[in-house]
Amino acid sequence: MDLNADLGEGFGVWRLGDDDAMLSVLTSANVACGFHAGDPSTMRLVCAAAVSRGVAIGAQVGYRDLAGFGRRRIEYDPAELRDDVLYQLAALDGFARVAGDRVRYVKPHGALYNTAVTDEGQAGAVVSAVLARDRTLPVLGLPGSALLRQASAAGLRAVPEGFADRGYLPSGALVPRGRPGALVTDPDEVARRAVRMAVRGTVIAVDGTEVGCAVESVCVHGDTPGAVGLARAVRAALTTAGVPLAPFSRAG
Q: Are 218 and 192 in contact (CB under 8 A)?
């Protein structure tokens, strides 16, 4: 099982989360590429730190929305969105290569991630950008999403992920931020949810129903309150449950 989190989400002198502490726990790092958060210096520093710890680097591509942290849906022309995603992916890959590795996978951020669950046009734009840059890159996304379906149809590796610190609807979608139950912040509960996903392939939705959630990677958001403690609790619980931890992008 892979354990991922969003890193490099500061901008300039403003910092969000403890990237160094998170990198000591994770197997994969979703690094912001400068559109929803991040800047060139931050991208370089996080890539270098990830490589030094053996953590796989993923491009977390998002909307061009620094003010809204990429969590506001934007209606895009698909070709424009494709090019925006390609720009971000290529930029981060440059810093990853300077650090001695390369981008290993792609994961949309925030509103783009959620939109690509059902919006075929935006999902297709992300897939088109990946195809244009590197057909060997896996795409990380929500199980059953349009994004993963299109990625698989295009010959890309589609990797389903679960969110240990986010609430789920009975449909398998995430509870929208701002609604009750959207965030799970109790370390014990977050750890239990991660183990359930890894071992049983299910998650308990906000209405108490058990929902299918077979995943290859578990995410803990870097900006969730107490994120480092949550990530440590998840890693410890998975290890105790006998679940090996390794970057999904380096399998085989």
A: no
